[in-house]
Amino acid sequence: MNQTEVPETPPEGSSRDSWMLVLTTVAAFSMIAAIIAVGIGIRGGGDSEGGSTASGGSKTVEVTLGDMFIKPATLSLAPGTEVTFKVTNDGAMPHDFAVNGENGTKLLDPGASETITVKISESGEAWCTVAGHKAAGMVMKITVEGSAGGGETASGGGSAAATPTGAQIDATATPTADWKPYDPNLEPAPGGKEHVIALTAEETEIEVAPGVTQMLWTFNKMSPGPLLRGKVGDIFTVTLTNEGEMGHSIDFHASKVAWDDEMRTIQPGESVKYQFEAKHAGFWMYHC
Length: 288
Fold this sequence. Notes:
Elements: E1 3-7, E2 20-25, E3 30-31, E4 40-42, E5 58-66, E6 69-71, E7 74-77, E8 81-89, E9 98-99, E10 103-104, E11 113-120, E12 124-127, E13 139-144, E14 194-209, E15 212-219, E16 228-231, E17 235-242, E18 251-252, E19 271-277, E20 282-287
Parallel strand pairs: 1-19, 2-20, 5-8, 7-13, 14-17
Antiparallel strand pairs: 2-16, 3-15, 4-11, 5-6, 8-11, 9-10, 9-12, 12-13, 14-15, 17-19, 18-20
């Protein structure tokens, strides 16, 4: 695990009143992906190039993955076109590309490429399956001429397309037995002048309503994350470890530093130590 230290040297202190400093976090993105069926069949070979072709033809498409975008963003095809996608990750973080979210490349490191061939018969989408990336804009819309996005698949299975639906919430349902509400009582502030905190950033599936779960970006598997408390003049030494599937960071609104330096994004498996002095009383948030 790589670790870098980015201390903020506290100025020589003078006595101050002991005002409370409270930090909290905001809940991060939640993801419920609506699935749109795409008639597909993985095939090998075939690098023919060309525009939209007649049924049974082929097409080669150069795909660029960036940080929260896919180029081209749209693709028009004739029914049954065998498409060779030449996919390159030009972003600064790992991405993948999957038709219907299932048939596609492996997770590509920055600069890596992969070619896949897919036979497509129905309108639908292709996207990056890394948590949060589709919701952030990494989607390609695929339009097949004469297709409404449902019906028979390329393999002739005749499967009906899935209809996108929102979460089905039962207003009369009760929480599961192990569900615990947040304790509204504020614990006393810890003693001492330095507060050493370990935070782990990762994607966690959390029940947000009885029987309804969402994938959230969390600190220590919590959303909101742990409450950090101290007094003016205290030192906070925070070690952030990324155990997620994508890059994460931490942004302390109580600290005046460059967001792209001390609070920069770290990749999965990395950690960063960040130290700052609480110079003002107040209530601030921290987030990815």
